[in-house]
Amino acid sequence: MSYIDVCREKAAQLKTKEKVNILAIESSCDETAAAVIQNGRVILSNEVFSQIPLHALYGGVVPEIASRAHVDAVDRMVDHALKEAGLTFDEIDAIGVTCGPGLVGALLTGVSCAKGLAFALEKPLIPVNHIEGHICANYLTHAELTPPFLCLVASGGHSHILMVEDYGVYRLLGCTQDDAAGEAFDKAARVLHLPYPGGPLLDKLAQKGDPHALKLPMAHAPGPYDLSFSGLKTAFINAVHKLDQRGETMPPEDLAASFQQAVVDALLSKTMQAALDNHVKCVALAGGVSANSGLRAAFTQACQKARMKLYMPELKLCGDNAAMIGSAAYYRLLHGEIADLDLNAKPALRLV
Ligand code: KG4
Ligand code: ZN
After folding, report:
1. What is the CA radius of gyration of the chain?
2. Does the C-beta of 30 come closer than 6 Å to ligand 1?
């Protein structure tokens, strides 16, 4: 029997197995990560190697450096994840891996490692969309969460508002027309001379600032739930430069707080409108930007007022990690969605 036929049989048997352990690998950008997840919900291990110090010198991710660092780290992370979970390869039922979207060289490292393991161990190989992984981070934090719910995914590369109709079934309501929210945070942080990635540092500064100090425009986007951050980002950069040229100063805390407030206002108003129009009872946040303190506070308040239940991943699961990939992989496995060994990296993979 061929590899894929063996794995189809194994995948079918796993649908009724009481405990399914998935080894997951994530390498789409600048984190090399491996995790072991049981039944899509329980984290047995979650190892993340951050490459940030390697890229900070250049003010952003350098794809070639990222690929090489992934090659260096991926085997080690897999070993750590197994050891931390207290399992051997024999006790792993399937291998999940991020196959896109992301940097092609970075993705290829994880995909190649996963393919090698899957072939050598004769275990099903499950390709996972990175954005779906971010959404599934919520399943790891909230045991009671099940679809349907509305989700705002805001990360460094993506900003989507979508309905999670069922596991693996999504309906796109709106998305950014230009920059992602995280990208805008990072660019705004750069003019405040914060090192890469500036989002978390801008958040810290903003906590001590006046969000009304600098007036910024509200972005216009075509659809009712679409987003746009490019204009806001440019307006902010121009405002900071103008202050500089006039020799005026505004505390960086106030600048950071004003920018953050503008981004949060846009994300909150579009998401809550989508939630109201779609009569949803549950709203979830996902992606790196869901770690933002202003965003979490604003959604907590708004959802309370609207009597909607709010779900947010715990902070350590907001950024890139392999635990979320292991959760997503489990639900794909239940649908029999496994890949053959011709699986390739898909840098521009879409969720919907
Ligand atoms: O989801 P993620 O880890 O990677 C991508 O899939 O893109 O998101 C990373 C992005 C970066 O732009 C980072 O600056 C931003 O999320 N981010 C934040 C915060 N923490 C991470 N932005 C604002 N406030 C934060 N606390
Ligand atoms: Zn991500």
Report:
1. 21
2. no
Give every CB contact of residue 263 below 8 A, 6+ residues apart in sequence: 181, 184, 185, 229, 232, 295
Tokens for 72, please give them: 């260096």
Question: Tokens 């509305």 belong to which residue?
Answer: 150
H/E run at residue 172: strand 169-175
- Residue closest via CA to ligand 1's atom 10 equals 156
Starting at the earlier edge strand, list the strands of the sheet with 149-154: 169-175, 159-166, 149-154, 282-286, 309-311
What the block records as the tokens of 58 is 């250049």
Nearest to residue 134, comparing CAs of 294, 320, 299?
Answer: 320
Q: How far apart are CA 78 and CA 80, in angstroms?
A: 5
Sort strands 94-100 and 125-129 into parallel, antiparallel or unpaired.
Answer: parallel
* Predicted TM-score of the model (pTM): 0.98
Query: Helices (DSSP H) in the chain: which residue ranges?
Result: 3-14, 52-56, 63-85, 104-121, 130-141, 181-191, 199-206, 230-245, 252-277, 293-305, 323-334
Reduced to 3 states (helix: H, G, I; strand: E, B; else coil), residue 1 is coil
Testing ligand 1's pocket by substitution, the residue of 136, 155, 190, 192 carrying the most ligand atoms inside 8 A of its CB is 155
Length of the chain: 352
Other Cβ atoms less than 10 A from the Cβ of 141: the count is 20
pLDDT digits (tens, 9 = 90+) for 122-156: 999 999 999 999 999 999 999 999 999 999 999 99
Residue nearest ligand 1's atom 2 by CA:
288
Q: Which ligand is nearest to the CA of 286?
A: 1
pLDDT in tens, 151-195: 999 999 999 999 999 999 999 999 999 999 999 999 999 999 999
> Any idea which residue has 């894929």 for tokens?
4
Of 138, 125, 143, 130, the residue nearest 164 (C-alpha): 138
DSSP-derived secondary structure letter, 347: T
